[in-house]
Amino acid sequence: MSRATPRTRGTRQRLFDAAIELIGQRGAEAVTVDEIAAAAGVAKGTVYYNFGSKNELVAQLLEYGMGILLEALRGPAAEARPGADVLAEVRGMVGRALGFIEGYPAFVRLWMGEQWRAGGTWQPVLAGMRAAVLAEIRAALERVAGKVPPVPGHDLGTVATALFGAAFMVGVDRVSAVPAKPAGPAVEAVVAVAAGAFGLREPADDTMSHQ
Description:
Tetracycline Repressor, domain 2; HTH_TetR; transcription cis-regulatory region binding; transcription; DNA-binding; Bacterial regulatory s, tetR family protein
């Protein structure tokens, strides 16, 4: 298969941008190909030329956003430096997750809306996305566990799920507020889930102490 030209990549990006905004607002089932094409400033046939169908467009849109999120979660390798606070990597991951929610609100609405739609068309894609995110979070927790054992009875898979849920709920709540709530206390509220699982107390001078 030949590589996409810059023009083709630009067209696909416009379609992604238009689709994510429309679908994030109204849901994938309610948005038509005609509406996506009009919002992107292209002919209806261009959608089919680039993606084949609306379902394929949405599937690739979900995968596209997930790639950005996973890259954000992995973050810079320098964060895992010797002598750092054992929760520094988790804290950085949570901060970047909240940053992603703030930067891509339409994608988050699309993801969350389709995630809870029973029997939705994109459930296999969404299941893979969720598994990939949880794997990244669990890997970070396992690195913490290599330094500090978790409190007995705390399963790292369950803790990863709790962090995932907390980060998205706190992140959405933060950006929905007017004005937006500060990031520091939001990050620390989520990190507290991991701190509790490892029996760690947050430093007295962290951002949670500054209201």
